[in-house]
Amino acid sequence: MKSQISFWMTQLDEPLTPRATLTSDITADVVIIGAGYTGLWTAYYLKQQSPDLKVVMVEAEVAGFGASGRNGGWVIGGLLGEERILAKLGADARADMHHILQGLPDEVGRVIQKENIACDFRKGGVIYAAARYPEQEKRMRSWLANLHSLGYTEADYYWLNPSELAEQLIVDRAYGAVFSPNLATIQPAKLVRALARVVEALGVPIYEKSPVTDWQPGVVTTPQAKVTADWVVPAIEGYAATLAPFDRYQLPVQSLMIATEPLSASVWDQIGLNRGQAFSESSRQVTYGQRSADDRMIFGARGGYQFGGKLRTDFHLTTAETELRQYLMGEMFPVLKKANITHRWGGNLGMARRFMPHMLLDRQHQLALSGGYGGEGVAATNLGGRTLADLILGKQTNLTRQPWVRKEGSVYRLSRWEPEPLRWLGYNSIIRSFVHEDQTLANPHAPAWRRKLALAIAGKMESLMC
Ligand SMILES: Cc1cc2nc3c(=O)[nH]c(=O)nc-3n(C[C@H](O)[C@H](O)[C@H](O)COP(=O)(O)OP(=O)(O)OC[C@H]3O[C@@H](n4cnc5c(N)ncnc54)[C@H](O)[C@@H]3O)c2cc1C
């Protein structure tokens, strides 16, 4: 089972033997559906603040089965859509938001240290490299200027010229990069499995192989038994398709990854990344990578979307899916063009209609919800867990006042995805325009007019997303 989930899971010492299944009806103060980071962080912060609260978790498979046990391990000091949120805020609110978001990797690191979790946490920052075609430099410079106009400083995000970039990351065609120190890398499966043990030790039972098949206010039903609780926390993110009505608000989109065999020191001398930095090559293919603690190159890129919001369950990558990732990686690092790919996997992540996360407390339906992180959920789930804990405990805090906490307080008022076939057509048209842009710009012989047109179409399509 480990290898069917991800490369990361294969590195664990423990077997993935499921914990007990829920076999008889129980009551609790809070029931959490899903034992990924969102559910586990929520349980953790609830128990930190209110040790006597009765919190239980029900998980369809085993803790970490979802995206939390599969991801790229970027602990990002930011949120999907944060620039659009910041643009609407005044200076004080911006400063507050910067403080919260930039502090996310440190908060994750603090708990990791406090709870003695070994998950290869390294705060080495992130390199958004313009590394494949010249248009990437313009795009990255304009992104940097926008971040600075929104109140981020030179200490938060700064430009690396090609020779500064080469001190950290050696790429074939270096045009420069945006660097941010506010990102850590982790071994994600080690974190999620350890967090499950931590919350269990705090008195939170995790019932595994117990899929929730129905939800009503205050009651969740699994195949053998029910949990009745004051609050239900659906922490199912990319699996929202499994449980109505959450499927209307979070769409399952895939991200797919590859890992090489451990690479020799001489190969790493030709790449860099010697202090835990993460990197991306900054195209709209949404690529991300890191050097694992055992010296593999871990590299991922955006995957597809299935008609009707159908959940993808088989993550044996097709030849085309593997080759695309290998091609993108080889474009950056020619030394890896023929590298031995030992692992291929992927997972479902949850995309909200407004392409930014939402958190809310819905009193009428006894729900506390956090999700829609897109591909930027590792740190955001920590924010979600802390925020939901405050909301459930009735605390008005700086976290509960933030703009991603939805004031309307009803799950049914979140923006819905369009019905099919509009969703599928829309998503695929946008992705096609991104692929077309990438293929055109990566072709050094493409004439200027074709490059401009491809950029304009992809840019327009991207703006339609939000
Ligand atoms: C390949 C990949 C790479 C990524 N890389 C990054 C990255 O580098 N950085 C980053 O910030 N984000 C990344 N993400 C996104 C990030 O991993 C997720 O946003 C985050 O893990 C979501 O955590 P979660 O707990 O909300 O959901 P999940 O981890 O998906 O957990 C949901 C859990 O709910 C369970 N479940 C589902 N349905 C039911 C049900 N009906 N009843 C009971 N249980 C149920 C599932 O089995 C699962 O364990 C990536 C995602 C993927 C797929």
From TrEMBL:
It comes from the Bacteria. Residues 29-391 form the FAD dependent oxidoreductase domain. Gene3D superfamilies: D-Amino Acid Oxidase, subunit A, domain 2, FAD/NAD(P)-binding domain. The keyword Ribonucleoprotein does not apply. The keyword Repeat does not apply. Keywords: Oxidoreductase. This is FAD-binding oxidoreductase. It comes from Leeia speluncae. The lineage of its organism: Bacteria, Pseudomonadati, Pseudomonadota, Betaproteobacteria, Neisseriales.
